[in-house]
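Reopening: structure tokens for the zinc ion complex, inputs below.
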Amino acid sequence: MFVADRPAQVARVVDLRGTYVVPPFGDAHLHALYGPDGLVAQDSILVARGVFYVLNPHVPVSDRESVRGLPVTVDVAYAVAGITAPGAHPATSYEARALGLQPWDVSGERGSEIRASRVREGDAYYLAATADELEAIWPSVLASGTDWVKVFLNHSDEWSAGRPDQPRGLSPAIATDIVRRAHAARLRAVAHVETAFDLDVALSAGVDLLAHAPGYALNDRDPAEAEGGAYVMDEDHLARLASAGIPITPTLARGPFMVRYIPEAYRPDTSTVDSVRAFHADLLRDLAESGVSIALGADSGGLWSWDEAAYALDIGGLTAANVLRSWSVTTPQAIFPDRAIGSLRPSYEASFLALSCDPEAEWSCTKEILHREKHGRALSLSPAR
Ligand SMILES: [Zn+2]
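Re-run output (same inputs, fresh job):
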């Protein structure tokens, strides 16, 4: 641990003169560190980049089991097999792949087949459309060894009124019951949200972390204008979020990044992508100015938290000081709220990165890591293979 005074006996001296010392970084939305091969490779990438704390916010039971007990340097929390409604996200993504299709095929001619498929149920996800169903699956959720319980909200205002061929995530009542049960079991709850209404439901339910910001997934139209403003957080949302003290992981970089993978015929034009980026910049500024805790993570597209950090700076949504605080203070504390991390003060775990130059002056300094210390242990990089 860090201590205020120099102890009488000093076993090791780390010369930090001329360096810039920050708490290690975190990644609050990274689908990685499962499967024995991925674990080793990704662990060393994360250590090299100074990311010591990770939340994998959704992983199948079997993938979690594949790495249980294996040595890893970064500290990882897993949300194992989240709970959603039949035929909804993310069940459809797993079922599409189980049928040899892609997640977006759910909106094609084989959509109803994908929605009806149950091949991955109980491993990749759990289903709870009713209170009885929740009661039935709950012992399995607890037995999965999850660190966090994931609830999926997706247009939860129309969960019962949506088109029958296009079911949404959990109902607000079931989501609330899940969070209550999670807390009773001393587990934390993380919510997938799509709309501002979903955010309201998640906050009312008392979740501990939001895995996305409303509108994060839209990359083919302006989120500010879409669906009558369903993706826009107003001042009340921001005030509730700030006063609840619940961190939010916006996951914004993926939208503009993934545009390149959209077939040319459907690809949004430059002005649409510009309006998406402008929406993201406004969103980040609003969150920061409202005092909301912003955690960093990139979710998908092969992106990591450092890509999300760079994107927040690139679009002018956050200052370098804000991003640094978010990456090295808020994110680690959001992932492991019970630990004394994310600070260099006495009684905190002695973990830090020593950078060769000032990251607030030049962002690339976050990559110039001269020394990595984790809980009083100096880390060395594994040799290149
Ligand atoms: Zn995700």
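The pocket of zinc ion is lined by residues 29, 31, 57-58, 299 (CB under 6 Å). Residues 270-290 form the longest helix (21 residues). Marking as resolved unless the reporter disagrees.
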